[in-house]
Structure prediction request, 264 residues.
Amino acid sequence: MKTDQLEIEIPEEMDSDLGEIPIVLVESSEGTQANERSLENEDSDFIWLKVDGQRRLATRNYVEGNTVYGEKTFKKNGSEYRIWDPFRSKLAAGLYIGLDIFPITKGTKVLYLGASTGTTVSHISDIVDYNGQIFAVEHASRVARDFLDRVANFRKNITPILQDARHPKQYFSVYGKVDVVYSDIAQPDQTEIAIANCRAFLKDGGYIFLIIKTRSIDVTQSPKNVISNEIKKLEANFQVLQSMTLEPYDKDHGLVVAKYQVKD
Ligand code: SAM
Prediction:
């Protein structure tokens, strides 16, 4: 799926309180067709809107009333939306910067490594909706408890897994193949761990979103160099589609999107 989505504008006088607000459709950079399609079937996974002249991203809340990290909400045509903060979520930062490919949509099955307290997982949960599923791996028990209390206990499309992502065979029996592996674990061997999980759980033709914490790998090299070295590790089994640093939202991370190609 391309990232051309419905864009709406919130009138300035309403923007301080994103409560029950009227919205105004504006033409997206992709032209009107995507807007019209999105408006017609009210089926957007996420939407762009304008608040105080600024472009903002939001997802339709899978569980109305469940907010996760103090994000603002607003109502549109009877549905609740949550503003998705690019300074708090690297996936949102990627969308702001210009991800071309976004293969997460309604019904997508995602294996998520490094759930933490669930900021990004919660927005993916909004997007994949009732028919999707997120298998969310986190190894730190205190963090995982927060994740359960604030996010996973409210959302039926999340299966929390308290395990070390270094040992995918320990959660092997939980599920079959997934469409997307999303990895954000900030470890020196983060790419190797992500690849091992893809081998175990990603379907042929599925996608990996690899968040690379460059400082965890080598503080002496520029982030761009670190990212290109990590990309080389992917090349044997993946077609790399896009890579980016996440500045200005995040100075230490890069994002790589690649397609998995199983080789005999
Ligand atoms: N992805 C989260 C978000 O956007 O909301 C933030 C993830 S945070 C940068 C990294 C998380 O990965 C931490 O919660 C950490 O405990 C977890 N983690 C690190 N190594 C791990 C491992 N080997 N297995 C599972 N989780 C791990």
Q: What stands out?
A: Residues 10-43 have pLDDT under 50 and may be disordered. Residues 89-90, 114, 116, 119-120, 137-140, 143, 164-166, 184-187 surround S-adenosylmethionine (CB under 6 Å). The CA atoms of residues 59 and 123 lie 6 Å apart.
